């Protein structure tokens, strides 16, 4: 492997230290404790792990963590009533409703019921609109984490060719807006893109967010490019024993690392940054709610 490894786990720990510093300051100087509410509907085991990790890290940085675990049968009206209460709760500065929601609940309706100022996921239509028009917004955590790693590695991103593979509302689209904000030349590619290999080969910055295990091989990557792998896919790993699995990204790491200049691993890349940025967004939301100076280095 010749690429530099971008250590998201390490970087995330640095972000959490910065967050913890701001939390201490808010507490000591202003008597304020930032609070994050996480709402989980149903029993999806993978979701439960994320919720547990988020809760633990929230407390670790000194913020208040409020967890709401609701049964899978919870009605949309009940969920909306909870959101309404959290919107009105002064101790809650950030609200995250874990996705996906059960089929009988309209996810867009629920997300758009969150007070945009408390929307630490940045999924509310008004935050989407603010980001798309270059105004101050709450920025989705995964693309924010990717941007922080790119700035750290490359400094000024102006004029670079950025290719985002994937057009989801939670990663691809907001990532493209952030990169445009950095003056990159941005291409958003997806499953219908013609000659995806050739499009990817143009990229100085390649962000893979499609959710297809190891679909981008090394020979799609421009020598020296910076590769950010957002995918977290669980695949069978019979070499580890009967019935075992392992996590891989959307990029074929081994072949890509021979060509790229720098690359994020999976696990230990974008994933930990996502959670760190959730904490960062909660501090940002808290500062804005109280009309205080925003934390430096933790926003887009
Ligand atoms: N409203 C909402 N916001 C989210 O941000 C959100 C969500 N819903 N639903 C679920 C997905 C998933 N997600 C992850 C965050 C961190 C890791 C993470 O830290 N992964 C570790 C590995 C963890 C493991 O070993 O399983 C890593 O990549 O190193 C993974 C997944 C946030 N999500």
UniProtKB/TrEMBL annotation:
**Which reaction(s) are listed as its catalytic activity?**
(6R)-5,10-methenyltetrahydrofolate + H2O = (6R)-10-formyltetrahydrofolate + H(+); (6R)-5,10-methylene-5,6,7,8-tetrahydrofolate + NADP(+) = (6R)-5,10-methenyltetrahydrofolate + NADPH
Superkingdom assignment:
Bacteria
Q: What does this protein do?
A: Catalyzes the oxidation of 5,10-methylenetetrahydrofolate to 5,10-methenyltetrahydrofolate and then the hydrolysis of 5,10-methenyltetrahydrofolate to 10-formyltetrahydrofolate.
Taxonomy of origin reads: Bacteria, Pseudomonadati, Pseudomonadota, Alphaproteobacteria, Rhodobacterales
Where does the Tetrahydrofolate dehydrogenase/cyclohydrolase NAD(P)-binding domain lie?
Answer: 140-288
Name the chain's protein.
Bifunctional protein FolD
Recorded hits in InterPro entries, A to Z, give: Aminoacid_DH-like_N_sf (IPR046346), NAD(P)-bd_dom_sf (IPR036291), THF_DH/CycHdrlase (IPR000672), THF_DH/CycHdrlase_cat_dom (IPR020630), THF_DH/CycHdrlase_CS (IPR020867), THF_DH/CycHdrlase_NAD-bd_dom (IPR020631)
Q: Does the keyword Oxidoreductase apply?
A: yes
Any single GO CC term annotated in Swiss-Prot or TrEMBL for this entry: cytosol
What organism, scientifically named, is this protein from?
Rhodovulum adriaticum (Rhodopseudomonas adriatica)
Q: What is its EC number?
A: 1.5.1.5, 3.5.4.9
| Classification via NCBIfam families | PRK10792.1 (NF008058), PRK14186.1 (NF010783), PRK14188.1 (NF010785)
Gene Ontology biological process terms from the UniProt entry: L-histidine biosynthetic process; methionine biosynthetic process; purine nucleotide biosynthetic process; tetrahydrofolate interconversion
């Amino acid at each position: 492997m010749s690429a530099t490894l971008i250590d998201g786990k390490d970087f995330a720990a640095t972000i959490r230290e910065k967050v913890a510093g701001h939390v201490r300051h808010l507490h000591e100087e202003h008597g304020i404790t930032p609070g994050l509410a996480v709402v989980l509907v149903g029993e999806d085991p993978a979701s439960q792990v994320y919720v547990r990790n988020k809760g633990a890290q929230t407390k670790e940085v000194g913020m208040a963590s409020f967890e709401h675990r609701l049964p899978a049968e919870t009605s949309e009206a009940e969920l909306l009533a909870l959101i309404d209460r959290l919107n009105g709760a002064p101790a809650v500065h950030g609200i995250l409703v874990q996705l996906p929601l059960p089929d009988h609940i309209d996810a867009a309706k629920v997300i758009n019921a969150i007070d945009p100022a408390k929307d630490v996921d940045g999924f509310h239509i008004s935050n989407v609109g603010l980001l798309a028009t270059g105004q101050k917004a709450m920025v989705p955590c995964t693309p924010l984490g990717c941007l922080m790693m790119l700035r750290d590695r490359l400094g000024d991103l102006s004029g670079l060719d950025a290719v985002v593979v994937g057009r989801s509302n939670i990663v691809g689209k907001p990532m493209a807006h952030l990169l445009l904000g950095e003056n990159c030349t941005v291409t958003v590619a997806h499953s219908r893109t013609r000659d995806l290999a050739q499009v990817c080969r143009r990229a100085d910055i390649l962000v893979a967010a499609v959710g297809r295990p190891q679909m981008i091989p090394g020979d799609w990557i421009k020598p020296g490019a910076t590769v950010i792998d957002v995918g977290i896919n669980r695949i069978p790993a019979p070499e580890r024993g009967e019935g075992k699995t392992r996590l891989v990204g959307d990029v074929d790491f081994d072949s890509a690392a021979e060509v790229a200049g720098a690359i994020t691993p999976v696990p230990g890349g974008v994933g930990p940054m996502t959670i760190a940025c959730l904490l960062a967004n909660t501090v940002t939301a808290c500062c804005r709610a109280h009309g205080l100076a925003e934390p430096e280095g933790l926003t887009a």
